[in-house]
Amino acid sequence: MQAAATCNHVSRIFNPGANEVRALDDVSLTIHKGEMSAIVGPSGSGKSTLLNIIGCLDTPTSGEVLIDGQGVVGVSKKELAHIRSQKVGFIFQSFHLIPVFTAYENVEFALQIEGTTKPSERKDIIMPLLDSLGIGQLANRRPGEMSGGQQQRVAIARALVKKPALILADEPTANLDSKTSMSIVEQMVQLNQEEGVTFVLSTHDPMLMEAIPRVVRLLDGKIVDDGLEG
User: Fold this and answer.
1) Would you say 152 and 176 are in contact if contact means Cβ atoms under 8 Å apart?
2) Is 190 helix (H, G, I), strand (E, B) or coil?
3) Second label for 226, Cα 20 to 30 Å away, from 35, 99, 194, 198?
4) What is the dihedral of CA 70, 73, 77, 81, to 10 degrees?
5) By the 8 A CB rule, do 93 and 205 touch?
């Protein structure tokens, strides 16, 4: 099975020296393509740091990281930005939609950054995606005219539209009520099962943990359970 992301003996140390904080301590983890995984642990366990390193938003102090088979440690900031735009999609708990853009324009913006899709091809890609997420009728609405669940679906569409190697979701249900959270979780599970979308989520949500096949548990910067049987 191909790997979407691999961390080999990754450590991340902040403030090296007497007062150092070892956010990650010799972490090795492989996320396979088509997998749906959750990274869980108490506050300060290192899950956000691990998600940021997998997403090329941070770099490890030591160790090796590969995204879709490509090594990302030691490459330039420009190359890291290119890898993020091509291989990683992000879903944030605060949605991070551009308020003056419509739902359609927020999703289109991801294609503009990615840079390989012709403008004439975008509508035929974006509208079926919005329809599949149940928000096609909201294409011309701005974020302020949508509910939290609708905004999160736009954020999911934005992450999916460039067909990245993996999608990272940081507490994707944290700002949603329980009914909307369940709907979003079911949507992501369906995308994983039917489309083979690779998801890695960080969460405190017990409902989310129950719905996800693989749960990776962190404690004090170490993996205490990699979520694999055997």
Assistant:
1) yes
2) helix
3) 194
4) 30
5) no
16-32 burial string, b = 16+ CB within 10 Å, else e?
A: eeeeeebbbbebebebe
Cα separation of 119 and 217, whole Å? 42
Give the chain's domains with CATH numbers.
3-225 (3.40.50.300)
CB atoms within 10 A of CB 60: 22
Low-confidence ranges of the chain (pLDDT < 70): 230
Please give the single-letter amino acid code of residue 108.
Answer: E
Tens-digit pLDDT profile for residues 94-111:
889 999 999 999 999 999
Name the residue among 65, 74, 48, 58 with its Cα closest to residue 4: 65
Paired tokens of 155? 């954020």
